[in-house]
Specification:
It is a single chain. It contains 14 helices and 7 strands. It is mainly alpha-helical and about 325 residues long. The protein has a 3-stranded parallel sheet with strand order 1-2-3, sandwiched between helices. Strands 4-5 form a two-stranded parallel sheet. β4, α9 and β5 form a beta-alpha-beta unit. α3 crosses α13. The radius of gyration is 22 Å and the shape is globular. The structure holds adenosine monophosphate and tryptophan.
Length: about 325
């Protein structure tokens, strides 16, 4: 039985229904079942070019969206990474346990190296080491993530194993829990993932009713004649229907599809209205929190304090095992 969960999300500002279904909704379920730590990873976000004037808003909006969509600071420890400096301290320690070859093989690193050719830095390279520090600082043994993070998790286990072997058992070897929801595809291009970086591809939790309806109405369904297989655009709409509509509704549209009588406009109208209904309360909570920033910062400060109490203990143990700072203190 897992004892503790850790997961992180980058502060990319307002979140979309892909983030919600792919990560946040799952976190909200886990916090009811097990001791959970959820973190906005701003130190990870500085490894690619960014504007420092925008960062506070990105972090704040991520905090607000997560709180509005069900992350409950009474049930979990929810905090911002840079408020707990032990993350970077443990990252430095772990740098001495991370094999260069493994870091060079990381797919995410290779992609970003190609994307940011002129500004590839060591932070991008050791990004997965910081991620291992995030998880192991709390000795978490379960990490809910998408498939793209499995390689980073494997490195995390490798680092834990090497540390334990060299300096004595300190860390668990955390397992990934693959997010149950399928990948949500871009509404306007269902061959790609729904993403902040593709305009028109997403619905945000902050979108107005009309913006939601417009995005669904213009979603790509079939391009060209209808084939034997369901097109990826239609499949994507069915995935969203399964997430946001009643099971009977889903079954009815599925039957119509199988019978060849489904009109996409009906499917879209239904989905749009169910999305509007699901998002409205989240948006209302979001607006309430946006209007009271001091309340949000108070929640985040309290979260960091709780996280830090554990982080300080782990670092003392690590230093002690490594013969640093006279007994680790
Ligand atoms: P990102 O902003 O891409 O780093 O994603 C933050 C979290 O949301 C990660 O856990 C992703 O796996 C998840 N996520 C992002 N985009 C999607 C998507 N289109 N479908 C499902 N999950 C997603
Ligand atoms: N790298 C993760 C992503 O891009 C974010 C992340 C940072 C994370 N630290 C973590 C995820 C620790 C899980 C556990 O989505």
């Amino acid at each position: 039985m897992a004892r503790r969960v850790f997961s992180g999300i980058q502060p990319t500002g307002a979140i979309h229904i892909g983030n919600y279904l792919g990560a946040v909704r799952n976190w909200a379920r886990l916090q009811d079942q097990i001791d959970s730590y959820f973190c906005i990873v701003d130190y990870h976000a500085v490894t690619i070019p960014y504007d420092p004037r925008e960062m506070p808003t990105r972090v704040f909006e991520a905090a607000v969206d997560l709180l509005a969509s069900g992350i409950d600071p009474q049930k979990c420890t929810f905090f911002i990474q840079s408020y707990v400096p032990e993350h970077t301290e443990l990252c430095w320690i772990f740098n001495s346990f991370a094999p260069l070859g493994a870091l060079e093989r990381m797919t995410q690193f290779k992609e970003k190296r190609d994307q940011f050719r002129e500004s590839v830095n060591a932070g991008l390279f050791t990004y997965p080491v910081l991620q291992a520090a995030d998880i192991l600082l709390y000795k978490a043994d379960l990490v809910p993530v998408g498939e793209d993070q499995l390689q980073h998790l494997e490195l995390c286990r490798d680092i834990a194993r090497r540390f334990n072997y060299r300096f004595g058992a300190a860390f668990p070897e955390p397992e990934a829990e693959l997010t149950p929801a399928a990948r949500i595809m871009a509404l306007n291009d269902p061959t790609r993932k729904m993403s902040k970086s593709i305009p028109g591809s997403y619905v945000n939790l902050s979108d107005s009713d009309d913006a939601i309806r417009r995005a669904i109405r213009t979603a790509v369904t079939d391009v060209g004649p209808r084939g034997a297989e369901m097109s990826s655009g239609v499949a994507n709409l069915f995935t969203l229907l399964a997430a946001f509509s009643a099971p009977e509704t889903m079954a009815r549209f599925r039957n119509e599809y199988d019978a060849g009588t489904l009109r996409y406009v009906d499917l879209k109208n239904q989905l749009a209205e169910d999305l509007v209904r699901a998002i409205a309360p989240i948006r209302a909570r979001r607006e309430e929190l946006m209007a009271h920033p001091e309340r949000v910062w108070q929640i985040m400060d309290a979260g960091a304090e709780r996280a830090r109490a554990i982080a300080v203990q782990t670092m003392a143990e690590v230093r002690e095992k490594m013969g640093l700072r006279r007994g680790g203190r």
